[in-house]
């Protein structure tokens, strides 16, 4: 170093900084609050008209965010996006059937991925989409920045009222949750996110909003092991004749 300085060479200082890539946000901006009794009451009733009026008031912030999104994504249209969001939603859930995690990473964000694959290891998922009971629609849009004002992220909440089937089997092939042949009506509010300033960014599923008035989910049946007799090291276990031990569900 001293020899270089004497020779008149200028050595720039070494920078220890590393680039940080924030692919998605850590949460949902201003989560949408679904009206109580959604999809159960007519829009022509008194309560339905009241909910429709409140939704129009909240549309002002959504319209400003939609304008911001269109500055970065010229092809974004609120009339076409719900169908695109539905395709992403269906394909992401179908990836759980065959455990295609590589494809799932391209359809959901890094925040949503652990929530979808959590506790399904060694389990078999059978999910299918039957039909849409109502056309999907955009109910809210929000924009926010991270780290600096130029790093923009956009989130769009889509209301989906669909009919689905879901069944989950444990590693022994026993049914834990749902039924494959019984479709159920499901009302979901799915949030999709895009890194707007990233030219290669795409819309991905970011999470779901579960309203407080939603009915409780069906409990999961777990297979447990019945403890056998305590044997000493020199003893062998002999199964009683004429009796079969059946597994119990708890």
Question: Helices and strands in order, then pairings?
Answer:
Blueprint: H1 2-6, H2 46-72, H3 81-94, H4 101-107, H5 112-117, E1 124-145, E2 152-169, E3 175-195, E4 204-209
Antiparallel strand pairs: 1-2, 2-3, 3-4
Report the total helices.
5
How many beta-strand segments?
A: 4
Please give the alpha-carbon distance between the first and last residues. 72 Å
Largest sheet: 4 strands, antiparallel
Could you characterize what this model shows?
The protein is built from 5 helices and 4 strands. The protein is α+β, with helices and mostly antiparallel strands. The protein has a 4-stranded antiparallel sheet. The protein starts with a helix and ends in a 41-residue tail after the last strand.
Short précis:
The chain is of the alpha+beta class and 250 residues long.
Q: What features would you highlight for this structure?
A:
5 helices, about 250 residues, flat
């Amino acid at each position: 170093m001293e020899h270089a300085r004497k020779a008149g060479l200028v050595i720039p200082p070494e920078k220890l900084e590393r680039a940080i890539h924030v692919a998605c946000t850590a949460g949902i901006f201003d989560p949408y609050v679904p009206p109580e009794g959604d999809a159960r009451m007519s829009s022509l009733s008194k309560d339905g008209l009241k909910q429709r009026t409140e939704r129009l008031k909240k549309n002002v912030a959504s319209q400003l965010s939609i304008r911001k999104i269109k500055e970065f994504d010229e092809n974004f249209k609120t009339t076409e996006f719900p169908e695109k969001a539905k395709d992403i939603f269906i394909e992401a859930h179908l990836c759980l059937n065959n455990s295609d995690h590589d494809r799932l990473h391209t359809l959901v964000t890094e925040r949503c991925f652990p929530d979808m694959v959590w506790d399904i290891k060694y389990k078999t998922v059978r999910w299918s989409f039957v039909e849409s009971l109502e056309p999907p629609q955009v109910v809210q849009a929000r924009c926010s920045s991270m780290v600096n004002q130029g790093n923009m992220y956009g989130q769009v909440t889509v209301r989906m009222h669909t009919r689905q089937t879901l069944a989950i089997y444990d590693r022994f092939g026993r049914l834990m949750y749902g039924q494959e042949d019984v479709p159920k009506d499901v009302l979901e509010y799915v949030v999709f996110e895009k890194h707007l300033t990233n030219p290669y960014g795409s819309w991905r599923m970011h999470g779901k909003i579960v309203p407080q008035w939603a009915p409780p989910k069906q409990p999961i049946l777990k297979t447990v092991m019945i403890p056998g007799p305590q044997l000493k090291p020199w003893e062998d276990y002999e199964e009683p004749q004429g009796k079969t031990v059946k597994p119990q569900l708890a």
